[in-house]
Batch of 3 targets.
Target 1
Amino acid sequence: MGHWEKDTPGVMELPSGRLVRGRGLRHGPAAEPFPTYGVYLLGKEPPDVPWETRWIKWPDFRLPVDRAQALTIFREALERSGTGRVEFACGGGRGRTGTALACLAVLDGVPADQAVGYVRQRFDKHAVETPWQRRYVLNLLTRS
């Protein structure tokens, strides 16, 4: 299936060495190589794309509507990132996308209290935009 190259825009390396991409849908269509699996973090259904996708209903500046479903999808995406090109995307590519990437980092072994900093250093310095998004990452595994 292929993997991301480390220098692909938006690609972040997790502690395990797995690579995932984050992007903003408002910045235009996905560039090649295309993902093999996409997780879209939007308040409404995402547009159709020619690769496999999952949708987490997640209004802008808020949290996932179904947190148990989101955690299941995060775990699935982490697993798939070992064999394919996984991307996470929301409208702007910072708040919800950064929060989801921080959750992935927690699942991959980053301590929850360090995950936001991890993503801000490796993906986007403005990732995870709200206090409740930071708390969501911090408490990700205590509510599962």
Target 2
Amino acid sequence: MSENHDVPSGGGGGPQPEPIRFFGTTWVAHEGGYALRRAAVAAGSLAAAAAGCLILRFAYQGLTTADIGDFVNLLLVVTFAVCSAIAFRKTWEGFTRRPADPARDEALRSLKMIGFIGSLLAYFIRSLTEAPGEKLHRTEYETALAQYEKRRTGRTGNPAARQKKPKPRRR
């Protein structure tokens, strides 16, 4: 969803806000159903996390029924717990700053998929206060606007209409 109905028209070619998943650019002015979207994202991510926990419980019951051993059961629980904690942390960090090393972040992608419950919970908690990633996007957008205005106001008048000063003659 990348609606641009709330994008402030800054007179033309200025920087445009980056859309956020599920919010488009409604985060700029908090209009266009922004509060309703935040509530829906919070409820949806919490419901998805609960459904994920239920599926993991069924998988764990299947393993205990198969009687594969206590060590494997413990290893499975620890793996999902650690992966969920790492996924939560990395997802949460992604809301506040861009990754310093995108290649390393890409390498953790499979770990974040295993710990999907942690990512969903981070999304849920963040959406209680703002659109996930809104603070980062707002900071970048405001910085870009300030730089654009600084560049734009630094140029005064039409450069083609300026009169050239005569060069002093050399003797």
Target 3
Amino acid sequence: MTTQPLATATTATSPVLRVPPADPAVAAAYFGASLAFHADVSDVAAALASDGDPGFVLLDSRSTASWDQGHVPGAVHLPTALIAGQARELLDPAVPVVTYCWGPGCNGATRAAYALAQLGYQVKEMLGGFEYWVREGFEFETWQGRERRTADPLTAPDESDDCGC
């Protein structure tokens, strides 16, 4: 009588492992590609806070009303619907663009990145959007001036600028 190894029995019953993980080389290619398309809020904030040129332009793709409600300092405002007609006036095609919109429940940054890529721009999307920018405690601007909220402990570590990711 043969018995199955414990890992195989666990794999068969685990909803996580019903579909087994990808081969490590395939996983490395997939996750590497994901990093080529995405940046997180804390990395964007660190790049913008460093001395000198961050190497990219940050683009807010939301409406004017949304922009007025709050936006990342230094971002360029260009709603997605206006990208085809105005990107060349506002953005240097030689400089990568990082797009953002409201947050994880909104695909506006994805649509903006797609429109820019179709125009020949190198582009990434900032995961979390404006929502996570504010939730992580970074400064933002409104029509009334600059503001900062206390970081949400579910999105950023207490009393630290580095999440260790």
